[in-house]
Amino acid sequence: MAQSNTPTPSEQNYVPEESLYGMLFHNSLDGIMLTAPDGRILDANPAACKILGRTREQILDEGRAGLIDNTDPRLETYVAERKRTGRAHGELIARRTDGSLFPIEFSSVVFPGPEGDARTCLIIRDISARKIAEEERERLIQQLKDALGQVKTLSGLLPICASCHKIRDGQDNWHVLENYIRKNTGADFTHGICPDCRRKLYPETTSQ
């Protein structure tokens, strides 16, 4: 019986490992760089070039020292963590070509290269927009806290005189209603005359 040469469904969908990695590398929305533990950069994908505002050649030439703010105290901690555990994840400050700084989120993993030497995969993402949104959220939260701190409220039972409507405080002192509320809340008063009192006090001004 002749053997069929028709590829099976799994064979039809098969993508060589090198081609698959190449597609992921070149089409990822995150910046991906192949690096060495000593800070050298061996390759960078198009997304990394866009995020860092440099050509691939410029990125390889500058290395980690030219791309990351070396004064960021977190850098040394992350490098030590990766050396100890083989991986690191967190946030750092990157440098644009004009020298301005911006925040990035990164993940870095150490793995053995083809010749057994250590290599690292560095994935980066520009989080400037997220940081701005977080700062705005914190600003609004602080504004709300400040506003709530200025609000005074009354609760519970208030002892009030049935005749003059003065209110007794916790020290048995009596206060005019308006003064007590003004002192213990954020409210104030304007004065007018309700229709019932107007008819009682000024009947001559009330239309028949």
Task: Describe this entry's structure for a reader.
This protein has 208 residues and is of the alpha+beta class. It has 2 domains: 16-129, 2-Layer Sandwich (Beta-Lactamase), CATH 3.30.450.20; 152-203, no CATH class. Helix content is 41%, strand content 21%. It contains 8 helices and 7 strands, in the order ααββαααβββαββαα. A 5-stranded antiparallel sheet has the order 2-1-5-4-3, sandwiched between helices. Strands 6-7 form a two-stranded antiparallel ribbon. Strand 6 (167-168) and strand 7 form a beta hairpin.
Instruction: Determine Rg (CA atoms, Å).
Output: 36 Å
Q: Would you identify the CATH architecture of the largest domain?
A: 2-Layer Sandwich
What name goes with the CATH superfamily of the largest domain? PAS domain
The CATH topology annotation of the largest domain reads as: Beta-Lactamase
Beta-strand residue percentage: 15-25%
The shape is rod-shaped
Please mark out the parts with pLDDT under 50 across 5 or more consecutive residues, or reply none.
1-12
Estimate nothing, just give the exact number of structural domains.
2
Overall helicity = 40-55%
Number of helices: 8
Largest sheet, described in full? 5 strands, antiparallel
The averaged pLDDT comes out at 84
Structural class: alpha+beta
Q: Quickly name the level 1 CATH class of the largest domain.
A: Alpha Beta
Head-to-tail CA distance between termini: 116 Å
Keywords:
rod-shaped; 5-stranded antiparallel sheet; Beta-Lactamase; two-stranded antiparallel sheet; alpha+beta; 208 residues; 2 domains
